[in-house]
Write a structure and sequence with these properties.
- This protein is about 80% helix and about 0% strand.
- It is mainly alpha-helical.
- The termini are far apart.
Length: about 70
């Protein structure tokens, strides 16, 4: 599920925004599971945080050029 920056750069702005929203939703669900003590893979939180940051960074790069 981890995507490289090059793969994310190939997506359109709308697709990147949708991807970031999807990742944020998953992050919310994992945080809820963590609060309830039911999280299966706590490292997934860290990976999601980095993926969200990667998507946001690429969005800013694209908006800066446009």
């Amino acid at each position: 599920m981890k995507e490289r920056a090059g793969e994310l750069r190939d997506l359109s702005n709308e697709e990147l925004q949708a991807k970031a929203a999807e990742l944020k939703k998953e992050m919310f669900n994992l945080r809820f599971q963590q609060a309830m003590g039911q999280i299966e893979n706590p490292m997934r939180l860290r990976l999601l945080r980095k993926e969200i940051a990667r998507a946001k960074t690429i969005l800013k790069e694209k908006y800066g050029r446009a």
